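Handoff note, outgoing to incoming analyst
You'll be picking up this chain. Sequence as last confirmed:
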Amino acid sequence: MKEDDHTPAKVWRKHRLRQAMLFVTVPGVLLGTASITAAYSSGWMSPPPPKPACRPMVVPAPARGSFTVNVLNATGVDGKAAQVAAGLAKRKFRIGGISNAPDSWYVTQSAVVHYGAQGLDQALLTAEQIPGAKLFEDVRNGTAVDVVVGLGYKDMVPIPPRLKPIPSEVSVNVYNTTYKTGLAKTVADAVKARGFKVKDVSNDPQQTMQLGTAVIRYGEEGDLAAALLKQHVPGAELVRDDRTGPRIDLVIGSAFTDLVPVAAVPALPERPKSVVPTVARPCH
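Most recent structure output, in case you need it:
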């Protein structure tokens, strides 16, 4: 700074200049603020509306048996893909291939479900079975999905309790092991009259000789159906075998006389209202 900057004349001029700038600036700011406030109050200017919240679209889930699920193992643990495939099959999914994932795939999540543009709903339904599973869209066609089991896999979600069947949901073969000709048809007609679906009626293809009232043969999926039929056949013995599917066999023995009277059969449990399964498509 030069020495003559502090002369009384120059100090006075700087003071007047600051006053002038303050006179112009402050009213301008106040006027501008007041104008904006008045505009908002009058509705001339409105704040931008908030963006609508993104809500997933809930749609009916596809039938579990309507698409193919391939299972790949990326854990390095032998048998993990087969384990997951068996769990999905118990949940009524249709299993395709079971194999190891390429060595270059490193999956830390519980699972990654690969799907194409047409298979989003199928992938969402499948991923719901494995806690922590993630989705990955690729360029495949169709609705088939691949489940790549990762290092974080622990277990699947519990299987919902099965409903006890009613007679119209049970398919039964009726077989005769006695010397009484036509007994299988007589019993089959009586069973059918109580609402059961009768399929094969003949002599026992296993050629057994039953001395008791009857034997009800069933597989893993037919336990509830067998228990229901047993209520109609006095003294029937339940025998589980390695068959697949829910169909059961009623094998009539030499001690059979008649079915349990209808009035003595326990009442069917009340069926809960059916709920349509859904999936929630994520919003973008």
